[in-house]
Amino acid sequence: MNFKTRLTFSSALLLSGLVLTNFSLKNNRTVYAATVTDQKQTVKINYSGGGGVAVWNNYQAPQHVTGKYLANNTNWKSFKVATLDNQRKWYNLGGQQWIDGQYVSTNSQANNAPASDNSQYQVKETKGTAHITYSGGGGVAVWNNYDNSRKITGKYLANNTNWHYFKIATGDNKTWYNLGGNQWVDGQYITENQEYILPYTYYSQLTPTFAPSACEAASLKIAMSVKGIGNNLSVKDVIDKMPRASTPDKGFNGDPYKFAGGKFITIYPEPLAAYARSLGANAFNISGASEQALINEIKAGNPIIVACNLHMQDSSSYHVSTIVGYRPGAFLIADPYRYANESGKVFWVDMNKFMRIYNYRDKKAVVIR
């Protein structure tokens, strides 16, 4: 909950019987019997003194001020009402948050006004693409926050445009999307885009460095570009730094600058992930991942290096490429075995075909998160 609080106050200041500091009531304070009822409504703060109305942790002794104060003429959601035997009322704002009813009105003006959401929003960090759907004039407003303290930034998003989002806040039966920094958009104007294309940079294993057997290194370079990792490394650097071994379960087991000549040369996911981590990537061996698991990774903005066939053709040529996008029924593949100016280096492949080849290659995969 984002309460409006006083910036400064004196620890001894009294405002109409409200003390603006934390304290506990004495044990000799009269305790009244109370009736507590569930009642959802909007309450309005009516307070003519300085500062604000204190929020308490309970409606009767023992109780203390929580340190939060509500400004005059603000509206808040209330969930319960406690009525004491002396007919004094307290209003619950969620959890252990109570305000004295003498400073509250529940008239129609309060109930029709926008209320602050005093229940906590759940904010989740997640990446995706938001599609603006808006039939009115102008555009959809960008706000500086998602709760009732929000203000319009002065920016507006046009209908039918797409934007990357980084967080989702849910609460008060609403959803807000964060477009980076203090930029939030009301979820009622958003549909999540069904096509996800990661911000990759294509790299070739054939030019400017000719390395016909270095598809793993070039695919890794493409994957790292999505996360902005290893920008100071060339494809040749990534090739040359890759660990060598006599077997692919330990490292790369051949000469990347020569054709394989009928030999099976590669590096398996576990040592490849370890090597990627040594370059600063948050890499994991996810071999065996299901179709849905792969989709979820791409939706989350994470590229995946996979064992496959050359150009995803139904052939026996072992190859490694990078998944850099998803749409229903297809993955977007960046295949490093193309020249930089050649067509067909990045293409969509039917999901059924992809899964057939992926399964044939024993579901070998490395994700960079």
Automatic annotation (TrEMBL):
Alphabetical list of Gene3D superfamilies matching this protein: Cysteine proteinases
Keywords per UniProt: Signal
Entry-linked Pfam families: Peptidase_C39_2
First and last residue of the signal peptide: 1-33
Domain of life: Bacteria
Domain Peptidase C39-like: 199-337
InterPro entries per record: Peptidase_C39-like
PANTHER family reported for this sequence: LMO0724 PROTEIN, PEPTIDASE C39-LIKE DOMAIN-CONTAINING PROTEIN
Annotated protein name in UniProt: Peptidase C39-like domain-containing protein
The organism's taxonomic lineage, starting at the top: Bacteria, Bacillati, Bacillota, Bacilli, Lactobacillales
